[in-house]
Amino acid sequence: MNDTNDMNDMDTPRFDTKIAVLLRFDLAVWQRLNVTSFLVSGLGSQLPEVIGAPYEDADGVGYLPMFRQPVLVFEGTREVLAAAHTRALTRALPRAIFTADLFATGHDEANRAAVRAVPTPDLDLVGLAVYGARNGVDKVVKGARMHP
C-alpha cells in the first residue's frame, strides 16, 4: 500500500488532510520506532481534530482514542529532512521535530533544552512529523520515499 487514500476498500474514507512522519534513513530500527512515537505524540497533543473517538470492545471495556486517519511514514537523507523542515516552516504547518541530540538526553526538560540550544538551520534532524492539507504535506515530504 503506497498511500492510505489509494486503498482497495471502497468504504475507506478519503481524507483531505495527511499526517506524515519523515525519518532519516540511517536510523537503527529502535530509533525509528522511538522517534516516530515521540513525533506523533506531539501532533496528537496539540491538534484535537486528528483524534477520533474512544474505543470500546464487546464487553464494554474502554480504550483510549487514536488518530482518526493513518499516519504515513517516509524516509530520506539528512538533506531531504532539512528541505522538508524548511518547507513545513514556510507553509506554517503544524510540526514536531526530533534531533539527534535527543538520543543522549534522559527526560523531557533536557529534550527541550537540547533543541533550544541549537539555531533552526543547524538542527541535526532525524525526524519530522507534519499535519495539514494533503497537497501541502505532499509538498513538504517531496523527495522522500515511503518507509519500507
Low-confidence stretches: 1-8
Shape: globular
The largest sheet, given as strand count, sense and whether it forms a barrel, is:
5 strands, mixed
Strand % is 15-25%
Instruction: Round the Cα radius of gyration to an integer and report it.
Output: 16 Å
Overall pLDDT: 91
What's this, in brief?
Helices cover 32% and strands 23% of the residues.
Verbal overview:
The protein is of the alpha+beta class and about 150 residues long. It has four helices and seven strands. It has helices spanning about 30-45, 80-90, 110-115, 135-140, and strands at about 15-25, 55, 60-65, 70-75, 95-100, 125-135, 145. The strands form two sheets. Strands 5-6-1-4-7 form a five-stranded mixed β-sheet, sandwiched between helices. It has a two-stranded antiparallel ribbon with strand order 2-3. Residues about 1-10 have low confidence and may be disordered.
Protein topology:
Elements: E1 17-24, H1 29-46, E2 55-56, E3 62-63, E4 71-76, H2 78-90, E5 95-99, H3 108-116, E6 125-133, H4 134-140, E7 145-146
Parallel strand pairs: 1-4
Antiparallel strand pairs: 1-6, 2-3, 4-7, 5-6
